[in-house]
Every structure is written in structure tokens, then in C-alpha cells.
Amino acid sequence: MAKLSVDQVLLKARSYVKKGEIEEAQKLYQMVLQAFPENKRAQQGLAAVGKSKQTIDVQGPPPETVNQLVNLYNQGQLAVVVEQATSLTEQYPEAFIVWNILGAANKGLNQVADASKAFRKVTELNPDYADGYNNLGFVLQDQGRFDEAIASYTKALALKPNHVDAYFNMGNALQDQGRLDEAIGAYKKALSLKPDYAEAYNNIGNAIQGQGMLDEAIETYKKALAIKPDFAEAYINMGNTLKDQGKLDEAIEALNKALSLNPDHAGAYNNMGNALQEKGKFDEAIASYTKALSLKPDYAEAYNNMGATFKNQGKLDEATEALNKALAIKPDYADAHNNMGNTLKDQGKLDEAIEALNKAIAIKPDYAGAHNNMGNALQEKDMLDAAFTSYTKALAIKPDYADAYSNTVELLKIISPKSTKAHIAVQMDKEVKEIGNSLLASSSDKEIAHKLSDALECISQGRLNFKTSLSQIYKRNSIDLNCSRHTEIFNSKNIIPEFCFGCFKVQVEVDNLFSLIRLTRQFYDLDLEEDLTRKTIIEMRPDISGFYKGLLYCRGLDQARVVKELLDIKLQKIFTDKITVQIKRGCSEFPLKFSNYGKITDNRITAMDYPTEWKVVEGQFDHSSPLKPKENIKPSISGFCLSDFYIIQKWIDYAKGLDDPSCKEFDNLPIVFRDIFDIAVMRKAKYGKPFTEKTDT
Q1: Which end of the chain is more exposed for a tag (fewer CB within 10 A), N or C?
Q2: Torsion of CA 179, 180, 185, 187, to 10 degrees
Q3: Percentage of the chain with pLDDT > 70?
Q4: At 44, is the pLDDT very low, low, confident or very high (cuts 50, 70, 90)?
Q5: 449: which residues sit within 8 A by CB, 6+ positions away?
Q6: CB proximity list for 566: less than 8 A, separation 6 or greater
């Protein structure tokens, strides 16, 4: 009694009574009476808890019955526990301990509604039982009732401020709501009470990862693993974060470590499949998803990811089958509806694709990816204004969504929205088009530099940190040449498609950046009898020579000759520097494998016709991986646009890598595309400079 006064001991005894901890209260009352036998409050308190204990003993089942239930629960015989506990609650309806065991068993059987009912009964029978509120919060969270769950955890903590699990579970509920800072605070509170709580470190890592702080997340997972080296879940989360960083080999290593600790972890196999898919190892990814499904047959996420992988392989029927299985298991699975929409779009089933994407959006209205994909489907259906609206919805949800912004910018090559208020890109496009219209093929170098600077300044004022993935400026007609199909056949089957034997291009090579800008302007202005697709490019293919090029796609050799003659005349009027105009057949990669394919004389094609045996190979490819040309293609608006100037930013960095004197006007600009600059440096070392150094005379 030296440390606590009698009053303090009696208060503590009463708190134990409120919590239902009768034996602890008895001990304290007996301690007081040993020291002060005549203390009335201690005598009355002891008598009261004696009656309470008798009531509990009368209301509850025998201790051995409760112990038997606990043993069955620990053995995993949950269905038996539910059956016996249910029977006991009928005999002892006010035995909160039985209701608590019943709730835990139902939770283990994923019968969350029954678990919620049982735990709520616990809190009604014993309002001062902190664990009852913690357990109730846990099942409410499983039901997606996060606000109620947090309120229940708060009640548990009011009763027991050092309840570590309540803080941890509250962190989980807050994280599920996206309240990541608050979640981290709750986890840290749990760690202050239990510094070796590896699971709390793991979940802090998940919250930090959700905030985009990937390096910090990995360090936090390492703290969890330092405490608990066999923590498979922390290795899985680290693997996922490394994948998000693009460190795919390290991600696979972490996931393999998780599987070495837990070979039956379906989630680890699923995540391994995701990493392998990003690495382009599609067959291995499918094998990982299949393993995950063998361990967990109702794993909707694994079926969804398998479907996405089949789509990437061009196996659209298999993709549809896998996605249907995901949706049979989980009908409200927005990601699977989204992937189904993309797959149906690739099959040309646009109405069905739009229906699937609408389902994804109905389930998850703020699903930026689904809005973006809806735009793609609507664009292929020639519903361009609706497509534009979908892209801008995606950007309203996720302003830094690069794919949606890129799609918006590319759509502005073929439409001109009436209102510039729809998105900042529309206003920027209007402004740079006005600048581009004044940029003529006959402009001087100084005029070109001035106009480009104005356009780039306009882009920078938009404050959109966008880096285009494109490097070629196209003026397209309404025909899809289906080059993706032809390239895939060449790369995978080692044959040249039949279509490409009739494909001819007129290629123009110039020797500096400003000449490429002039050529682009000329290609926009060039009026041909047929509106042939044309493009200007910086050459980046490692085995193809040249630097600055323009290409016009012709329908046959005769047309190519006519176009070449026209260009010879027109370009001589514009260019004083050296230019080269020639006819070439198909893609430049083809003659590297089949040397006779590209040989052309003045009168005829020499040496190579289409081998008829290749037709069977093409047919097999089209059957297994159908890549059909797009329909409803709208031709490009003539003239420079926003997309073009984003690409020209890339051309400037390329020119800097070549030490092209014409880009000295842009020495003050930082290098935006370091990879393009480095490619140009390597090409200069391999092929020399595209230009002749000018000297003063």
C-alpha cells in the first residue's frame, strides 16, 4: 500500500468491475481489507463482486465447456464451434464469452454478418469489454462499414487506451478509406506501445507506398523484416513496390523469397505474374497465375490478370474466357469489366466494349482508367466529341494521367472543340496552331527558332509536366495500313507480310533540325491527288543509318515515282542545303534480313517476289492473333498542332546530342529527353554527323 492510497486502490477495483474483470477486483478489495479490516467501502465492494461472480457463474456455462470451445477454435474446427456455441447461447443467452467465441468462429468462416451480430451482442452484454468493440470493428471493416468500424475502435480505446490491436485495426480501416496520414498515425501509436510490431511497420509501408513514396516504403518493409525475417507478406509488398519502381528483377527476387517462406501463398504467385508480365515474359506470367488459381480457385484477381496477359499476347478469346471467370466470381469487379472492355475493343466489338466500360464506371465512377479506355472505344466508333469528353473526365479525376492527356492531345490533331474551356490542352492547342500557321517552309532559320521558342513557351506556361512518348509527326489519311500487324509478323515469324511487297515510300533526308521543320511544313502543305499518309522523323533505330527523315506512303511503285518527281521540283525551291530523295520498299528493317527485298531498278523490282509458302504462315498468325486494321479513321488536320510541338521538344534534344549547329538557339533550354540525347550521341559516333560544318571565308 506504499505506492497507492486506499482511495486509489478502491477506484482501480471499481474500474476492474466495470470491465468485467471480477477476480482482479476481488484481489484489490481483499488487499485493502487485510490492511484495514473495518473499511466499509472495501467490505461493500467485495460483497458486490461476490454477487456479480455468482450471477456470472449462474449465467455462463461451466468453465470446462468454455475451454472445450476454445480448444476446438484453436484446432481450426470452426464449423463445430459455431454449432456448439449457437446451442450454448440458447441455454446461456447472457454469457458474453460464448457470444465472443461465436463471433470469432463466424469471422473465421467469412460469415461476417453473423460475426457482426455476435460481437454486437458481446458489447450489449458487457459494455465495458474493450475487446468486444475491437472485434466488432474488425467485422464492420470487413463489411466495408469503415466509419462504424472506426467508431467501434475508438470506443475500445476509450475503455483501454493501451489496446495495441485497436490502434492497428483502426490504422487498417483508415487506410481502406484512403486517409493515409491518419492511418500512419494510428500504426505509429501501436508501435509506441509495441516497438517490435512487425505488422505495423509492414502496413505503414503500404500506406507510404500509397502516397507514392516508394523508397521510404521499401525502407519501412525492411524494418518489418529486421524484426520478423520470415515475414512473407512484407517480402510480397516489397516486391510490389519494386515492381512499381520498374526494378523488375529485384521485385521477382523479393517475391521468390516470399514463396520460399510460404510456398502456398496464392497472392505471391499472382504478384509474381504481374512482375513477369511487365517484364514481357507472358508465358511465365500465365504459369504464375495458373499456380495461384490452383491454390485459390476463386481468385478473381488472378483470372483478371491472366486475362490482361492474354490480351497483351493478342490471344483475345483466351483473354475473354479468363475475364468472364473473374466476373463470375466477382460480378462487381471494376478492373475486370475495364479489361473486358479493352479486349472487346481489340476484337472490334465496340458496342459490347462500351457496355463493359460503362459497367466499370458505374461500379467505380472515379475510375480514370476506365474513362480513358471509354474514350479510346468511342474514338474507334467515330464518336469523337464523346471520346474527347471521356478523356477530359479521366483528367478531371487524375490531372497527371499521362495516357489520357496524350490521347486528348492526339485527338486534337483531328478535331477542333468549339469551347477552349473543356481543358487547358484545347487552349494551348489553339495558341500553338496559330503560331504554327505562321511557320512557313520558306521561313529563315531565325524565324523558325523564334516561332519554336514561342510555341515551347506556350507549352511551359500550361504547367503540365507531360513528356510525349511519340517521336514522329504524322499527317494521316483515312486508311489504317495496319503496320502493327505487319511488324509483329516480321518479328515473330521471320517473314515479310504480303502487303509489304506492294508498299513503297518516298524518303527524303535532310541534314539539320530546321530543315526537318521545313520538311514537316512542306508535307502538311503538299497537295497530292490522293491524300497519302506522310511523316517526319528522327531516326533512332540502331541498325538503320540516317538522322532526319521524311516519308510518304505510296500505293505502288508507279505512284511513288510520280510523287518523287513532284518532290524533286518542290524541294529544290525550298532547300539550299543537301537533301536526298529516293524510293524505298517497305520497312528499312526488312532488307537487313532479306537483302534482295529492297532492291529497285529504274524499270522494275528485282530479285524478290512474295514466297507463296509464307501465305500459310500469315494465315496461321491471323487465326491465332488477329490484328485488324482500324476503321473510322479520321484524317489529320493540316498544320502544326500541340502534339507536334511536344514532339519537336524531343527533336531539339536529339539535335543537341548530334551537336547540330542549327539548335544553338536552344542552348538555354534544359535537356528534357535525356534518353533521346544519349541515342543521338551514340548515332553520331556510329554514323558521323548528318551535316557539313560551315566555316567562315
Answers
A1: C
A2: 110
A3: 95
A4: confident
A5: 514, 665, 666
A6: 526, 528
Contact between 61 and 88 under an 8 Å Cβ cutoff? The reply is yes
Q: Summarize the confidence of residues 109-130 as an average pLDDT.
A: 88
Q: Is residue 667 classed exposed, middle or buried when 0-12, 13-18 and 19+ CB atoms within 10 A define those classes?
A: exposed
**What pLDDT score does 91 carry?**
87
Q: CA–CA separation, 321 vs 293, rounded Å?
A: 14
- Scanning the structure block, which residue is given the C-alpha cell 473543356? 422
Q: Taking the CA atoms of the chain, what radius of gyration do you get in angstroms? A: 35
Q: pLDDT tens-digit profile of 458-507?
A: 998 876 678 999 999 999 998 889 998 999 999 999 999 999 999 999 99
pTM of the prediction?
A: 0.77
Give exposure, 494-507, as e/b (b: 16+ Cβ within 10 Å): ebbbebbbebbbbb
Which helix (H) or strand (E) segment is 503 a member of?
A: strand 503-510
What are the tens digits of pLDDT across the range 209-254?
999 999 999 999 999 999 999 999 999 999 999 999 999 999 999 9
User: Do 652 and 455 contact (CB within 8 A), yes or no?
Assistant: no
Does pLDDT of 19 surpass 50? yes
Q: What is the pLDDT of residues 157-215, one digit of tens each?
A: 999 999 999 999 999 999 999 999 999 999 999 999 999 999 999 999 999 999 999 99
Binned at pLDDT 50, 70 and 90, residue 694 comes out as very low
CB-side neighbour CA atoms (13 Å) of 321: 5
Q: What is the pLDDT of residue 58?
A: 43
Residues in the chain: 697
Contacts of 331-336 with CB under 8 Å at 24 or more apart are 332/363, 333/300, 333/304, 333/363, 334/359, 334/360, 334/363, 334/364, 334/367, 334/370, 335/301, 335/304, 335/360, 336/300, 336/303, 336/304, 336/307
Tell me the pairing of strands 580-585 and 503-510: antiparallel
Find the farthest-apart pair of alpha carbons in the chain and give their distance in angstroms, rounded: 126
Query: Which residue pairs, CB below 8 angstroms and at least 24 apart, start in 284-288?
Result: 285/309, 286/310
Grid coordinates of 660: 547540330
- What is the rounded CA–CA span in Å between residue 633 and residue 621? 24
- State which amino acid sits at residue 505: K
**Residue 473: its H or E element:** strand 472-475
CA distance 415 to 438: 20
Distance of CA 48 to the CA centre of its chain: 62
Rounded to whole angstroms, the Cα distance separating 694 from 556 reads 39
Question: Tell me, what's the pLDDT at 604?
Answer: 60
Domains and CATH numbers, the chain: 6-59 (1.25.40), 472-639 (3.30.70)
What is the average pLDDT across 73-101?
A: 89
> How far from 435 is each of 335, 639, 672, CA to CA, in Å?
42, 10, 22
Q: Which regions of 48-153 does DSSP assign to beta strands (E)?
A: none
| Residue (of 305, 356, 354, 307) closest to 331 by Cα position | 356
Grid coordinates representing 60? 455462463
Of the pLDDT bands very low, low, confident and very high (cuts 50, 70, 90), residue 603 is low
Residue 115 C-alpha cell reads as 460475426
Helix H or strand E encompassing 550: strand 548-555
Rounded to whole angstroms, the Cα distance separating 575 from 517 reads 12
How confident is the model at residue 287, as a pLDDT? 97
